[in-house]
Design brief:
heterodimer, A: globular, B: alpha/beta, seven-stranded mixed beta sheet
């Protein structure tokens, strides 16, 4: 067990310090098989990496340029949107690299964000925070201590858009999957 | 891509976690938080009985939930030598913030020192001494004795005026009553050091001399007054960004009309309406935008005056209000003096004011009506608030006085819904022996250092390199002077302590400066230091402060300081004891005896020696009593102790007795004299852009912690400079470009942030940032009491380079809230 402790400590330093995919609770308390978990991240349960469902959110044909398409991910209680921005952005999916998906609960206090199409920003009526849909959900200005959680998206040959993960903690839950 | 932590699960706080009272270590508002700690191998459960929030966590939590915390509110730290989980989350029962967290305070946990998670690895863990051509870790005895031996020799041979001291005087973070007393007792009691200055200004002086001279202490109301006011008049402050949760939790409810019930209940004999707000600021800020959304644009009057002309506006308001008969003559008669003299001297017509300020006469008239026109025969309640736009602005003394004139004339001091207050930067935490021996004006320390004065400099948590004026010259000279000593120390390597000290003293004969720096990090000025002493900060020690409504709380120690770092008060005690030994060794027993009385073992000992014995009402205040009063504490001054705990004071001056010898507040003559500080008029004539400057929501102070915070440095790898798009076209720059800002006093750099609401020729640059110090281009002109004028600075701008890699992914969209 002593050896396992050391491994945990090393692992914790690596992925908590560098910002790789990490699950703080598991990392700190379990001897986690991080590499295997990462490889099987969507199906493996109980590892250091949270297991996200692969969910078909929409088909490309349903998206209209710069109009939010309401979705829920990773479950029905977690509202979000898909957006087709019309030009490739960092983290964009689909044939044009322009499809993004975000949670629409403000990561400050969970107020529902509204989308301002003109400058492609999400805006919070609670405390005026703003997030940039074209810059990975970066908080333009605001009270949140993290940028807007963005979905990891995959688009298949049929144009079906799947979410397969989230890159930040969602508001209102201490585990992104309940 | 924007920075993401990729944390998708956090440990649940168990019901058994230890819960500590915490006041946010950062801004003046002092929001209440709790620090929860628990063993590293434990976690709470989702069932309500298994977690500290007593909440079922199996589902999505509603908005504004007390049962959610963000990754930035989590860390893994040492407590009594053991790893513990740490969550620092806002306290919804705290009357200050009501459960709100800001983008600064919300990162308190993440900005703690953690070896496990590699956060704040910039923290100092050991004393450092310049040795072998660099800084070497050493023990406290070695470092303290070197600092004390050099200091004592210099004092013995050249007198106390050769010791220069820069020391914080505030609360929060690395401040606090314990620590201001520790340093104060060392430099004002054991010694009488005249050559000292405060953390953010080049002299040991008040930022609000005028208000105090008039008998009006600058923190005289309570935060609830912002909920009760008919009108909020705010000058030179951007409160949404710099007093965030005061604005959100106390101003906004009044602007929205959500405090109407409170108004009717507390002030039943007069009509009420949601508040209107007058904002005096040459820049359109996010505060203006938020107020428009909350109150409706028709209830927000943004007086976008010419930079530096506030005094003219204030005199015009004073003149007009008096001429309309809207002054509170009963109050003026009973509680003030020299009104007639002031009103005569300060005459300013609306038209003349309009021509100088650039405002419309009707807007000035409208402001006067909102401030003072009676409401159905009753006196209108107006809260007057100001901060660095006035304090660091043109003609500080007279402008501050003109604002207090206005508040006194309208009877708005000591009354519900009133007050004439600075909004504040840091929290406060000042208790020291008298500084009366320093004199007035106080010596202009940074200028004296530039002129080669002083031989030893003790620097306590101040970083002149980032936050002083005339910083380019200051750094140039300071580097040269401290290098003389470094070279001397390098030359004496391997010798005895005596030969080392001889070499240092000889170096100071040649203009060298020996520097001792007590700090939490190896700061920019610390790069020039010879002895560096690692300090603890809030959370690593028990620490008391008061906020902007004088609310005093105890932040309990919840984790260990890094390495051997200590509270500043105990470092000061260590310096004092070492100085005593040094003087004794020099055969100076009388001098040695002055350094007795520092035998504190804990910060609580320093608190009891300082605050408890010396602060007004301090006899009623102890750690145990404060601990019991939690995050609401009490409002200073304490007046007693009863069943409900320490009895405080909600507002000052409710009895109409002011802080003057005769108890009457004094009106002042405040005549307009244009740009007052030397060099400003010439600079304005010569250079194209106003380089207005100040804070941003995301960054605390000079980013001493945030410079090691990924979320902040990702957003602002360089300080932003806001420019109008047409100015950008003319300069040939695009968003994110690095530009040089330069004038005859120095140069600095910033990244261009396009800002459609900026006025042509008027830029705004983030102040005090590590990767581009705005102070480099501020000239050395100060007012008659050595208050710097940071805000009125002019320079030219030219492109240095296209957007660097660290900038390429950033958003440069408007910071103003835009509902969908």
């Amino acid at each position: 067990m002593r050896r396992c402790d050391k491994l945990i400590d090393k692992g914790r330093r690596q992925f908590l310090g560098t910002g790789a995919i990490a699950t703080v609770g598991a990392a700190a308390t379990a001897c986690a098989p991080t590499a295997q978990a990462d490889a099987n991240r969507a199906t493996h349960a109980g590892g250091a990496v949270l297991s996200y469902p692969r969910v078909r959110l929409a088909n490309m044909a349903e998206l209209k340029l710069n109009e939010p398409h309401n979705v829920n991910y990773p479950d029905e209680a977690a509202p979000g949107v898909l957006l087709k921005l019309g030009q490739p952005v960092m983290g964009g999916a689909g044939p044009d690299g322009d499809v993004v998906g975000f949670s629409v609960l403000c990561p400050h206090q969970g107020y529902p964000l509204s989308y301002h199409a003109e400058d492609r920003s999400f805006n919070c009526p609670g405390h005026y925070s703003r997030f940039d849909a074209e810059a990975g959900g970066q908080q333009i200005w605001g009270q949140a201590t993290q940028n807007l959680p963005q979905y990891l998206l995959r688009v298949d040959d049929k144009g079906d858009i799947y979410a397969e993960g989230v890159d930040e903690l969602l508001y209102g839950r201490l585990s992104n999957t309940l | 891509m924007a920075f993401k932590r990729h944390i998708d699960r956090l440990p649940i706080i168990p019901a058994s976690a230890k819960k500590h009272n915490v006041t946010c270590p950062y801004c003046i508002v002092g929001c209440g938080y709790h620090a929860f700690t628990w063993p590293v191998n434990e976690e709470g459960g989702k069932a309500a009985g298994e977690n500290a929030m007593a909440t079922d966590l199996s589902g999505q939590q509603p908005l504004a939930s007390d049962a959610w915390y963000s990754p930035a509110m989590y860390n893994l730290v040492k407590q009594d030598g053991r790893n513990v989980h740490l969550v620092v989350k806002p306290d919804r029962d705290c009357v200050v913030n009501g459960g709100l967290s800001s983008a600064r305070g919300g990162r308190t946990a993440e900005n703690r020192y953690s070896t496990a998670r590699q956060t704040q690895q910039q923290r100092l863990t050991d004393p450092l001494v310049w040795r072998y051509g660099t800084w070497q870790p050493t023990g406290w005895d070695d470092a303290l004795s070197l600092a004390a031996d050099v200091t004592a020799r210099i004092i013995a041979e050249h007198g106390e005026d050769e010791l220069f001291v820069s020391m914080f005087d505030h609360g929060g973070s690395a401040g606090g009553y314990e620590n201001t007393w520790g340093t104060g007792k060392l430099y004002f009691e054991a010694m009488k050091i005249r050559h000292c200055r405060i953390h953010n200004r080049p002299a040991y002086n008040s930022e609000v001399h005028a208000s105090r001279d008039m008998g009006v202490g600058e923190l005289n109301n309570c935060y609830e007054d912002a909920e009760l006011a008919d009108t909020i008049f705010v000058a030179g402050a951007n409160s949404l960004e710099t007093q965030t949760n005061y604005f959100l939790n106390h101003w906004v409810p009044n602007l929205r009309g959500a405090s109407m019930a409170k108004k009717r209940a507390q002030l039943p004999d007069e009509p009420h309406a949601p508040a209107r707000i007058v904002i005096v600021d040459p820049r359109r800020t996010v505060t203006v935008n938020a107020c428009e959304h909350e109150a409706g644009a028709e209830n927000v009057l943004h007086l976008q005056l010419n930079s530096g002309t506030d005094l003219v506006l204030l005199n015009a308001l004073f003149t007009y209000i008096a001429a309309q008969g809207w002054t509170d003559s009963t109050f003026i008669e009973a509680h003030t003096k020299e009104f007639d003299k002031a009103i005569k001297a300060n005459q300013m017509s609306l038209n003349e004011a309009a021509s100088i300020t650039g405002l419309k006469p009707d807007d000035i008239r409208k402001a006067a009506e909102w401030i003072a026109a009676p409401k159905e025969g009753k006196r209108r309640r107006t809260m007057f608030a100001y901060e660095k736009g006035i304090i660091w602005g043109n003609d500080n003394y007279s402008t501050n006085a003109a604002l207090v004139n206005l508040a006194l004339a309208t009877g708005n001091v000591g009354r519900e819904g009133g007050g004439c207050v600075r909004l504040g930067g840091h929290q406060e935490g000042y208790v020291r022996p008298s500084d009366g021996f320093i004199g007035r004006p106080a010596p202009y320390i940074d200028d004296l250092l530039i002129k080669g004065k002083g031989r030893v400099h003790h620097v306590w948590a101040c970083d002149h390199y980032k936050t002083t004026l005339n910083a380019a010259e200051f750094k140039r000279v300071y580097n040269r002077r401290t290098n003389i000593v470094k070279e001397a120390m390098d030359s004496a390597i391997g010798g005895t302590r005596e030969t080392l000290i001889d070499a240092i003293l000889e170096a100071t004969d040649k203009g060298g400066l020996f520097v001792v720096n007590a700090e939490i990090i190896h700061s920019q000025i610390g790069q020039a230091a010879h002895v560096i002493l690692p300090a603890a900060e809030s959370g690593e020690m028990n620490l008391t402060s008061m906020n902007g409504e004088r609310r005093m709380r105890l932040t309990e120690r919840y984790m260990d300081p890094p390495g051997s770092a200590k509270p500043d008060c105990l470092i000061a005690a260590g310096v004092a004891q070492a100085m005593g030994r040094s003087f004794a060794a020099l055969g100076q027993p009388k001098l040695a005896a002055k350094f007795e009385g520092f035998d504190w073992r804990t910060e609580e000992d320093a608190f009891m020696d300082g605050y408890h014995l010396h602060a007004g009402g301090g006899e009623h205040v102890t750690y145990d009593r404060l601990r019991a009063m939690g995050n609401n504490g009490f409002q200073e001054p304490a007046t007693g102790y009863g069943d409900e705990g320490i009895i405080g004071t909600k507002r000052l001056y409710t009895d109409g007795k002011f802080s003057t010898d005769d108890g009457r507040a004094t009106f002042m003559e405040t005549e307009w004299r244009g740009l007052q500080a030397p060099g400003k008029k010439e600079q304005k004539r010569k250079f194209r852009f106003l380089i207005n400057n100040g804070r941003s929501n995301l960054v605390w102070q000079n980013a001493f912690s945030d410079q090691d915070n990924d979320f902040v440095t990702d957003r602002y790898p360089y300080p932003f400079i806001e420019l109008h798009p047409d100015d950008m076209s003319e300069l040939g720059v695009t968003k994110g470009d690095l530009v040089e800002v330069y004038n005859d006093d120095g140069a600095t750099q910033a990244m261009v942030y396009p800002t459609g609401t900026a006025r042509r020729g008027e830029s705004f640059m983030l102040f005090g940032y590590p990767t581009g110090q705005q102070g480099n281009v501020i000239n050395n002109g100060v007012n008659e009491l050595v208050i710097p004028n940071y805000k009125q600075t002019w320079a030219n701008i030219r492109k240095l380079a296209g957007a660097p890699a660290a900038v390429s992914h950033l958003s440069f969209k408007s910071k103003e809230y835009r509902p969908g």
